[in-house]
Amino acid sequence: MRSPLRPLTTLALLLALLAAPTFALAQPGGVPSFEPPGGLGDLPGIGLGLGDSAETVITAEFEAQEGGREGRLKVTADVPPDWHIYSTTQPKDSTGFPTKIRLDDGAPLEIVGPFQADRDPHLVTIEGKPAKSEEFEGQVVWTAPVKFAAGVDPAQAKFDIKFDALVCRGGPEGACKPVFEKLTATYAGTYKAIVPTGEYRDGLSHLTLRGYLEPAVAAPGDTVKLVITAVPDEKYHVYALSDRDPEEINKPTLISLQKLSGLTAGKPLADHPPIEKETGVKEQPITRYYEKPVSWTVDLKVPSDAKAGEYPIAGGVGYQTCLETNCDPNAAKFAATLAVAEKAESGQLPLAFSPWKYVEAAEIAETTAAQAESKRAEPINAATLGLYVLFGLLGGLILNAMPCVLPVIGLKIMSFAQQGGQDRFRVLSLNLWYSIGIIAVFLILATLAAFLNLGWGEQFTYTWFKVAMIGLVFAMALSFLGVWEIPIPGFVGGSQASALQSQEGATGAFFKGVFTTVLATPCSGPFLGPVFGLTLSQPAYVTYVLFASVGVGMSSPYLLIGAFPELVRFVPRPGAWMDTFKQLMGFVLLATVVFLFSTVAADYFIPTLTLLVGLWFACWLIGRLPATAESGQKLRRWAAAATICAIAGMFGFKALGPSDHELPWQPYSPTALAAARADGKTVVVDFTANWCLTCKTNLKFSINTPKVHELVEKNEVVPLLADWTDRNDEIKRKLAELNSTSIPVFAVYPAGKPDEAVIILRDLVSESQIVEAIEKAGPSQEQVDETATAMNN
């Protein structure tokens, strides 16, 4: 509440301001600065506006935790549009002064921890100031833990808060407004302590959220992973992630990070791509969603100079779960306190979730997206850009030593040997073409980053790209090992099949550069993190300049060698050693294939391996073609090879890949079977193994089918998967009970009937047999009871 002495104190403060030399309305950069004269912080109830009549509204309230003396005090500041208020941690060597919140004398409680804002402040660089200014716009809420005195009833408690702050507006017509408030805090009820279980489910939603930070304790310079998993209920789906709500029919998932405590966050990345489906609706022609659990991971970088202590992390998730006919938008806040110590400790730190509203999540997402766009519209100054260009050059140079690139450096070593004794202009030309190939890829990546918001290496989050890279590197390895020759002059360094193949050409040099850069993208190195991070908040031309600088840095050694060929005199002259070296590099590329396999989801291992076998046969077929063959014969051989690759890929990913209609399998155990049957469920158990080809055939073509999936959902059947890939005595005993010593076996347990009523299908089965067995068993008992009740009513 405001003091009745406001007119007098306002006049006194105005006279003091006129005498204070530290107040300026138009400092360099148009940002005002104010440091209050001593003693004004204790004046009651005063607010002074300069150049604007807008008021900043300050309110305070407190809550008590159920069952204890603990509580929390909240102070809210609603700042007018285009104005800002400073943080409680505003640096002294920046503009403005920090917001101060403290209890008045005689309060029946004590503050037992620091005030924490509900989000991070904006960091603003002020010309002439060594530290950045920490500013909040709009509404900001500071919360501090409190402890009530013994015998105090929080519901009857009354106390005052002193609030000192400076509210400013930037720009050429900058103005500042000191606010000194004495507020009476109001009682806002009780709350339950939020236990960080790492799981959340609202009573009205059809989705379970899970989340954690990993590691549990981080060291300075570490990267902490924030993982949020959405598990939609059976029959429901949740929509893909977006940076804002486009206010269309379907609401996207929104993940906002409002408090990072100095950590730097990357973009949320899904562990697998969503389903894309045409809607037939003009307003939203394509919808993207997940029917199965999906996890989004955000990399949080701890500053290398971070001090040991606690770092609060807070944010929220907005999501919408849908059936075919109805949808439920919902949201949840999450929070955790990351510990930073000298030595990291493994483990997961569960998130604490609390209820939220989707409309609030959408508002935060819209504000964050708008701020990112406004930052992108403000280019950095030439000096700062020059510094980042230097970082890009150094980072690109170091990329040549990264493990992802080393396998391809052998290509250049062989080309250096081939260039020995050649015309100097030709050597420079070939190295220039190689460098153009490198820079061309970086410019393509810059385009993807500037217009599609695709980060460095983000293409490796797509399964199709990883599979394509595995195939490309494998084909390169086969060429190195002499199975076939890539039909680009000098791309691999031929086996002397022809004079043309033994000399490097401009096309070969260019594609070597392209291939080298594409392989480099899974790696990062020193200097590149800040460079690529800066592109997120800058105009497109800055993105192109920075990506190009990395490309020039990566190609600089080859440009230098092209200009001064004597720098590689250490490379032996062309000879038999080149063929041996080339084959050794082939095995290095095969090791790269193994690494790339580790980035692919396990469900795609067998399909990808099947594709590689087809690719191997296709390359062998091309390699058997004589160099003197006619063009028509070559064309037919290449067409046959392409057909083989297509058939192998289609068979691998369609027949051996994950099914689009896979049943919601749960692991089999005698306990799981007994519990499901005790609940009155109809249960199916498929006894299978990865080494059983007939089992895999049944699963793909007879069990995991749309018709069976629909029937299982309709009858609320519980599907259990008894995986006998590895030795399991429980599965062996159950098979013996079913009078079976081999697999496949498909067992159906009808609801409410004895074990003797189990329906057993053995060996190769058809979809119609599976459907007939489930229909004969009937629905789960709960459904039977519900149907009977409906008929009686």
Short description:
The protein is an alpha+beta fold and 793 residues long. The chain is 36% helix and 23% strand. The strands form five sheets. Strands 16, 18, 19, 22, 23, 25, 26 and 28 form an eight-stranded mixed beta sheet that branches. Strands 1, 4, 5, 8, 9, 11 and 12 form a seven-stranded antiparallel beta sheet that branches.
| Category by helix and strand content | alpha+beta
Strand content: 15-25%
Radius of gyration, in Å, reads: 33 Å
Question: Total helix count?
Answer: 18
Shape: flat
- Described by its quaternary structure, the protein is single chain
Largest sheet: 8 strands, mixed
The low-confidence runs, each spanning 5 or more residues with pLDDT under 50, are 1-53, 493-502, 783-793
Cα end-to-end separation: 62 Å
Beta-strand segment tally: 33
Helix content: 25-40%
Rounded mean pLDDT score = 80
Give short descriptive properties of this protein.
alpha+beta, 33 strands, disordered C terminus, 793 residues, 7-stranded antiparallel beta sheet, 8-stranded mixed beta sheet, 18 helices
Report what the structure shows.
By secondary structure, this protein is of the alpha+beta class. Helices cover 36% and strands 23% of the residues. The chain contains 18 helices and 33 strands. Strands 16, 18, 19, 22, 23, 25, 26 and 28 form an eight-stranded mixed β-sheet that branches. Strand 22 and strand 23 (286-290) form a beta hairpin. Helix 5 packs antiparallel against helix 9 and helix 8 runs antiparallel to helix 9 (540-563). The longest helix is centred in the middle third of the chain and has 29 residues, at 424-452. The protein is flat and about 95 Å long. Mean pLDDT is 80; it is low at 1-53, 493-502 and 783-793.
